[in-house]
Design goal:
Layout: H1 4-15, H2 25-33, E1 44-48, H3 53-66, E2 71-74, E3 86-88, E4 95-96, H4 99-113, H5 120-134, E5 139-143, E6 161-164, H6 172-175, H7 179-186, E7 196-198, H8 204-216, E8 221-223, E9 229-233, E10 236-241, E11 244-249, H9 257-271, H10 278-287, E12 295-297, H11 301-305, E13 311-315, H12 320-336, E14 341-345, H13 353-358, E15 364-369, H14 381-390, E16 395-397, H15 401-411, E17 420-424, H16 427-437
Parallel strand pairs: 1-5, 1-6, 2-5, 6-7, 7-8, 13-17, 14-15, 14-17, 15-16
Antiparallel strand pairs: 2-3, 3-4, 9-10, 10-11, 12-13
Helix pairs in contact: 1-4, 2-5, 3-9, 3-10, 4-5, 7-8
Length: about 450
C-alpha cells in the first residue's frame, strides 16, 4: 500500500509530464508563489557533475556531521522511496523525511502550483526548499539533478560554494554531444563572486571551461591537482592544500577515485566556511556511507540465492566514465582476493552500453543482462547482451537479477572460489535490487 506521500506524488505523475523540460521559468514562478523559500535556507553546498557528485554529497555530509553540524541533504534520483531525496538535518546525523511531513509539503506545493504547466521534478525540487526552510539546520547540501544551468535546483543566488565534480559524456540529448558543451551546462551553477571548487577532471578542455567560467564571473576558485589533491601512501589517504597536509584513513567508500572525491568534499566544506578539525575528517573518512556506490551486500533475500560465499557488490554507475572507475575498484578487489567476476547488468536507453561494458573487457567471465522493471526506458535485455558482445564480453539475457543468481548458483563448479558478482548499470536497477533484497536505504 503506497504511503501518503507516495500517493500524493503518484497523483502528480498522472497530471504532469515525466522527464525534463530544461528552463527555470516554471520553478521560479512556483517558488515566488510559495514566498521564495529557497532564500530562507541555511548556507548551500551546490554539487554538479557527471560522476562523483553523489559521493561528494556523502563525503560533505559525513564531514559536517562529524564536526557536529546539522545538515539538510537533497539528492536525486532516489533508489527505493521518494523520501530518500530529503534528509532532514538533526543532531546525531539527521533522518530521511517523515512520510506525513513529506506528504503535507508535496500537497502544499502542488496546491500553490494550481495545475499550471510544470514537471514533477520541478515540484519536488520546490518541496526541497519548503522542507529545508521550515526545519533548522547549519548547512544544506544540494545535488543537481541534470546539467546545471537549467536544473531546477539552480535557483540559489549565492551558494556558500559551487562544486563541479568529474564531467564526461552523459545525457547528450539534453546537454550536448561534446564534453565542452556538457561542462558549459554544468558550469551554470557557478554564480558571480561565489566560491567554486573544481574536482578532478579527465579532460583538460573541461577544466578550462570551468576555470574560464569562474574567472569570467569573478569567483574565487580552487582546482584539484593544482590547489588541493589527495593520494594513497602506505595504506592511508594523504590530503594536501594550502593549509598543509592531513594523514587520514582510506575512505570507507571503495575505489581509488574516492580519494579525489573525498578531497573535493574536504575542500568544499572548508571553502564554504565550516570549521572541520582533522579528528572530524578522520571520523568522516572512516564512517562515510553512500548506498549503491560499490556497496557490498552481505545479507538479504538476494544474497541468500547466490553461490554460498559469493562477494556481491552493487553500483548504480551507468556511463563509460563510471564503468572505468568501477572496473578499477573491482581490479583492486581482485588484487586482494582473486575470484571469478560476473556482471548482472541493466541499463536505460539514454546510456552508452558498449562504452560501459568495454571497461570490463578481459575482467568479467560472463554477463547476465536484465530488464529494469521500475523504468519504462530500459534497454531490452536481449539488445543489452548484444552490446556486451560488441564490447568483447560473453553475455546472455535473463529475466531478472534473481534469475541470474539462481542460474549461476545452479551451474557453479564448487572446486572454484565463490564468484565476485557486480550488479549495476543503472540507479533504477540498484533501487530494485535493494528493494528486492530487503535492504533499502535508511
Amino acid at each position: 500500500m503506497p504511503s501518503r506521500a507516495e500517493q500524493e506524488i503518484d497523483r502528480l505523475l498522472g497530471l504532469h509530464p515525466k522527464g525534463f523540460d530544461l528552463s527555470l521559468g516554471r520553478i521560479t514562478r512556483l517558488l515566488d508563489t510559495l514566498g521564495n523559500p529557497q532564500l530562507r535556507i541555511p548556507p548551500v553546498i551546490h554539487v554538479a557533475g557527471t560522476n562523483g557528485k553523489g559521493s561528494a554529497v556523502a563525503f560533505s555530509r559525513a564531514l559536517l556531521e562529524a564536526a557536529g553540524y546539522t545538515v539538510h541533504v537533497h539528492t536525486s534520483p532516489h533508489l527505493v522511496r521518494w523520501h530518500e531525496r530529503y534528509r532532514i538535518g538533526a543532531p546525531g546525523g539527521g533522518k530521511i523525511v517523515d512520510d506525513d511531513v513529506l506528504a503535507d509539503a508535496v500537497k502544499r506545493v502542488a496546491d500553490a502550483n494550481a495545475g499550471q504547466a510544470i514537471t514533477v521534478f520541478e515540484i519536488l525540487t520546490a518541496v526541497t526548499f519548503v522542507l529545508f526552510s521550515e526545519h533548522p539546520a547549519d548547512a544544506v547540501i544540494l545535488e543537481v539533478g541534470l546539467g546545471g544551468r537549467f536544473d531546477a535546483t539552480n535557483v540559489i543566488p549565492e551558494p556558500a560554494v559551487s562544486v563541479i565534480m568529474p564531467i564526461s559524456l552523459d545525457h547528450q540529448p539534453y546537454l550536448g554531444d561534446r564534453v565542452e558543451l556538457i561542462a558549459a551546462e554544468k558550469a551554470g551553477i557557478i554564480k558571480p563572486r561565489c566560491p567554486v571548487v573544481i574536482g578532478a577532471q579527465e579532460e583538460e578542455a573541461v577544466r578550462m571551461v570551468l576555470i574560464e567560467t569562474a574567472e569570467r564571473r569573478d569567483c574565487p576558485f580552487t582546482v584539484y591537482g593544482q590547489d588541493f589533491l589527495s593520494f594513497e601512501e602506505r595504506g592511508r589517504m594523504v590530503y594536501q592544500d594550502n593549509k598543509g597536509l592531513m594523514d587520514l584513513p582510506l575512505p570507507a567508500l571503495l575505489g581509488r577515485h574516492q580519494l579525489a572525491n573525498a578531497a573535493a568534499a574536504i575542500q568544499a566544506v572548508r571553502t564554504a566556511g565550516f570549521k572541520v578539525p582533522e579528528q572530524a575528517v578522520e571520523r568522516a573518512m572512516a564512517n562515510v556511507e553512500w548506498p549503491a556506490r560499490m556497496q557490498r551486500l552481505i545479507r538479504g533475500k538476494l544474497v541468500e540465492m547466490a553461490v554460498p560465499g559469493s562477494e556481491i557488490w552493487l553500483d548504480g554507475g551507468h556511463n563509460p566514465g563510471a564503468g572505468l572507475v568501477i572496473a578499477e575498484a573491482v581490479a583492486t578487489l581482485e588484487d586482494r582476493n582473486q575470484r571469478p567476476l560476473f556482471l548482472i547488468t541493466g541499463m536505460i536507453n539514454t546510456k552508452d552500453p558498449v562504452g560501459y561494458f568495454q571497461a570490463f573487457t578481459g575482467m568479467a567471465r560472463h554477463v547476465y543482462t536484465v530488464p529494469i522493471r521500475s523504468s519504462g526506458a530500459g534497454i531490452p535485455h536481449d539488445e543489452l547482451a548484444l552490446a556486451a558482445n560488441e564490447a568483447g564480453l560473453s553475455a546472455e539475457p535473463v529475466h531478472s537479477v534473481e534469475n541470474a543468481l539462481k542460474i549461476l548458483a545452479h551451474s557453479w563448479d564448487t572446486s572454484e572460489p565463490a564468484p565476485r558478482i557486480l550488479i549495476g548499470g543503472s540507479l533504477y536497477l540498484a533501487g530494485d535490487v535493494l528493494s528486492d533484497n530487503g535492504t533499502p536505504p535508511l
